[in-house]
Amino acid sequence: MKKLPSKPSLSLVFFFLSLKIWFIEVLVAQNTATIPVNVGVVLDLEFSGGNIGLTCINMALSDFYATHSDYKTRLVLTTRNSGNDVVGAAVAGALQLPLALI
What residues have CB less than 8 Å from 71, skipping those under 6 apart? Predict the structure, then answer.
């Protein structure tokens, strides 16, 4: 009597499926490097509106990256106080630029 070839057991199929999912997870986890993008923010931090604006910007960034965690770029905020002075705001903004652009 000949033996019939046996069907692969369910546990073997489950093992290979789990192994494939694990390899995909490892490959996705290795690609988590972020690219920082420096952004200058000039606000009048002595005025409550400036502090509220900065808080809103930080909350918006936090919410955005919580929703879009697959984005590789990350905004890095550099804040400067304008001191309720238009010229001070312009100088604070100019200090953020590389010398080649000034």
Answer: 65
